[in-house]
């Protein structure tokens, strides 16, 4: 199968392209090579590659910065997917678009199913939700995958940030009243591959389990200890969201229900703790 992956400079696209290349013909293009906000660039590149599937990993992901860069966030996260979907429809290609748990307001106390009503709290969430709507308006052959709390090889992420701070600081405050699920890009890449030919629609995917950012940080520190990493850290300190003010509001609870994905694919999903251990062993400590 010929597959085009956008946003190749990012964590997810890099992991995905490496996985897909084992069984498919993959063209992974960066924003410089393929600007999804430019209609002419979209048409030119898609016609040149002539893919059967496009996986859109290109996104504006600076959650707080989006509050002041609203236009740019909507251009990349909403208009870009519309451009891709419109060309996909004309060429008969499938579009797989990556979205986010930030489309929800976090007021539920049970995992969000695909049909739950979105209500984003931030500009970032609003732009991603509009991207979902634009994809659905332009084509019927789409898969939208909502995911959460991504980390993986490549750019900086929460795991690397905590590890770095643990080496430098004795005290580290971490929010404990935002609940979700960390998701390893390697596992999300496998999920995308499993959904390549599955029925169109919206799917939720994250690793299994539930955690706060404090729980996540605590697990990272535990992995550091197991790996014999030196650190100055003496205490992780749980704090409330209000004690760590940020421009963008976050959902307090954004755990995703993955039952549809598991039913359609028949695949099990690794627990986030297991995947964190795997990531740390394969990537982080290797670079000590």
Please report the number of helical segments: 9
Determine the CATH superfamily of the domain at 2-156 and 184-208 and 254-269: NAD(P)-binding Rossmann-like Domain
Strand order of the largest sheet: 2-1-3-4-5-10
CATH class of the domain at 2-156 and 184-208 and 254-269: Alpha Beta
How many strands? 12
Describe this structure in words.
With 288 residues, the chain is an alpha/beta fold. The chain has a domain at 2-156 and 184-208 and 254-269: 3-Layer(aba) Sandwich (Rossmann fold). The protein is 40% helix and 17% strand. The chain contains 9 helices and 12 strands. It has a 6-stranded parallel beta sheet, with helices on both faces. Strands 6-9 form a two-stranded parallel ribbon. Strands 7-12 form a two-stranded parallel ribbon. The model has no long low-confidence stretch (mean pLDDT 94).
Name some characteristics of this structure.
Rossmann fold; alpha/beta; 6-stranded parallel β-sheet; globular; 9 helices; two-stranded parallel sheet; about 290 residues
Secondary structure blueprint with pairings:
Elements: E1 2-6, H1 11-20, E2 25-29, H2 39-49, E3 53-56, H3 70-91, E4 94-100, H4 123-138, E5 142-147, E6 150-151, H5 158-168, E7 171-175, E8 179-180, E9 183-184, H6 185-195, E10 201-204, E11 211-212, H7 213-226, E12 235-239, H8 259-265, H9 272-284
Parallel strand pairs: 1-2, 1-3, 3-4, 4-5, 5-10, 6-9, 7-12
Antiparallel strand pairs: 8-11
Helix pairs in contact: 1-6, 2-3, 3-4, 5-7, 7-9
């Amino acid at each position: 199968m010929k597959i085009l992956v956008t946003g190749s400079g990012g964590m997810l696209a890099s992991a995905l392209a490496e996985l897909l290349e084992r069984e498919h013909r993959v063209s992974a293009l960066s924003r410089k090579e393929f600007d999804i906000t430019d209609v002419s660039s979209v048409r030119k590149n898609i016609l040149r590659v002539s893919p059967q599937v496009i996986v859109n990993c290109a996104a504006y992901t600076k959650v707080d910065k989006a509050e002041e860069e609203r236009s740019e966030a909507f251009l990349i996260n909403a208009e870009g997917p519309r451009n891709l979907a419109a060309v996909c429809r004309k060429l008969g290609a499938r579009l797989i678009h990556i979205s986010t748990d930030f489309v929800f307001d976090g007021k539920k106390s049970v995992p969000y199913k695909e049909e739950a009503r979105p209500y984003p709290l931030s500009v970032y969430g609003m732009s991603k939700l509009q991207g979902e709507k634009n994809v659905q308006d332009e084509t019927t052959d789409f898969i939208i995958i909502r995911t959460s709390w991504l980390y993986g090889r490549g750019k900086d992420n929460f795991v690397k940030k905590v590890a770095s701070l643990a080496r430098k600081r004795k005290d580290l405050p971490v929010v404990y009243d935002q609940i979700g699920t960390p998701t390893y890009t390697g596992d999300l890449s496998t999920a995308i591959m499993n959904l390549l030919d599955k029925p169109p629609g919206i799917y939720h995917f994250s690793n299994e389990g539930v955690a706060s950012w404090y729980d996540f940080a605590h697990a990272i520190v535990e992995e550091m200890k197991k790996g014999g990493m030196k650190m100055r850290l003496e205490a992780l300190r749980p704090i409330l969201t209000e004690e760590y003010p940020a421009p963008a509001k976050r959902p307090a609870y954004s755990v995703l229900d993955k039952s549809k994905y598991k039913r359609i694919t028949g695949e099990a999903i690794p627990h986030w703790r297991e995947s964190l251990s795997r990531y740390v062993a394969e990537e982080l400590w290797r670079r000590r």
